[in-house]
Design goal:
twelve-stranded mixed β-sheet, four-stranded mixed β-sheet, transmembrane, 4 helices, cell wall, about 375 residues, alpha/beta, hydroxylation
Length: about 375
């Protein structure tokens, strides 16, 4: 749904009203002249006084204004009167089902430093396509009325003080494509159904979510998925390979992932950024990653990876930044050092500077190698053959 946003211009202050009788006469004369000349009368500006959609928007916006306890930048100073399309941060457009009726299609109060909670009246903005409220001090939870925003396309409430569990009402938004919940205080599990939504971008990072990446993770058609600084359990599911045609950026840094890197990661041919650093990944880098021809940034630092760096990875044509420091790699092809930015510190690579002490490398290499099952998760090693 394409909407062309515009602000209604603030009307000039009216001149003093003429006497009622004179005004009536003027209106009758104007109407008669318009009829005789065949000229249509100028259209009256649409406000909450003459447009039911804007009337509902007025109720919602006034409720939001009352819920704001601190507005240090005076963003809502002009939120007065029926001309809601002139309110700061409010954007109006033709209604999707009536080209002659204006409606509130966007609300953008990003970086406002507003302290507030969400009123239930927000659900009256039923034509809203964009809700951008990042970098404020909204607390509490998203309103129960959120599913009434059935046209909502972008939801950005990042960098606030939201609490409680994952706002499951998001699952009821049929048209949402962009969900940004990062940098809040949300906690608990994330429902697997979020990865079945037809999203283009999903940002869950820097919350207190605790969950295991579900097997349907690969069902997501998103181009960007950021799961950094969370408390993930389990492993990277092999279904990640199903995202090959759509995924551009996958960031899972510092999230407690404990697994091998499945071969299916190498199927992500559209991926440009892959960050798996600061986890508990073990095993070797899969040779299949040599097929990620669009990869520009690869970071697997601060894990427990070992073995050799596949030469095919360092030969990737777009790779400009490759960080694999603080692991236990033993060898690296010489061409890896030709990459624009490479960091191989604190490994076990002979002849390279700033590597781990020899006894530390020997102790690690004498540990039993991890056994990963067909899903890339740690499993019990197979019984010995006699």
């Amino acid at each position: 749904m394409a909407m062309h946003f515009h602000r209604m211009k603030t009307k000039a202050s009216p001149s003093p009203s003429p006497a009622p009788v004179v005004l009536a006469a003027l209106l009758l004369l104007s109407s008669a002249l318009a009829t005789v000349s065949g000229q249509p009368q100028p259209q009256q500006p649409q406000t909450a006084a003459n447009n039911p959609r804007l009337q509902r928007a007025y109720v919602a916006l006034q409720a939001l204004k009352r819920a704001i306890t601190d507005d240090p930048k005076n963003l809502t100073k002009n939120w007065c009167g029926p001309d809601v399309c002139s309110y700061y941060g409010v954007f109006c457009a033709a209604a999707p089902d009536d080209a002659h009726a204006l409606t509130v299609a966007g609300l953008d109060l990003n970086h406002g430093d507003l302290a507030a909670t969400f009123p239930e009246e927000l659900g009256l903005l039923s034509d809203l396509a964009l809700l951008h409220l990042n970098s404020n001090r909204f607390s509490g939870t998203l309103p129960e009325s959120l599913p009434k925003l059935h046209l909502l396309h972008e939801l950005d409430v990042s960098n606030n003080r939201l609490t409680g569990g994952f706002p499951a009402h998001i699952l009821c938004l049929p048209n949402v494509k962009y969900v940004d919940l990062r940098f809040n205080n949300l906690c608990g599990p994330v429902p697997p159904a979020i990865f079945d939504k037809q999203l283009d971008a999903l940002f869950l990072n820097d919350n207190h979510f605790e969950f295991e990446l579900p097997e349907n993770f690969g069902n997501s058609p998103a181009s960007v998925v950021v799961l950094a600084n969370l408390k993930l359990k389990g492993c990277i599911p092999t279904s990640v390979g199903k995202m090959a045609g759509t995924l551009n950026e996958l960031v899972v840094l510092n999230s407690g992932v404990r697994s091998c890197i499945p071969q299916e990661v190498g199927w992500l041919r559209e991926l440009t950024v892959l960050d798996l650093s600061f986890n508990e990944l073990q095993g070797m880098l899969p040779e299949s990653m040599a097929g990620m021809h669009k990869l520009e940034q690869l970071d697997v630092a601060h894990n427990e990876l070992w073995g050799h760096i596949p030469e095919g990875i360092c030969a990737l044509p777009s790779l400009r930044n490759f960080t694999y420091s603080y692991n236990y790699f033993c060898t690296e092809p010489g061409r890896c050092l030709d990459i624009r930015r490479v960091d191989d510190r604190q490994n076990c690579i002979a002849g390279r500077p700033d590597q781990r002490p020899g006894d530390q490398c020997l102790a690690f290499l004498h540990r039993p190698p991890p056994h990963c099952d067909e899903h890339g998760c740690f499993g019990h090693p197979p019984p010995p053959h006699y």
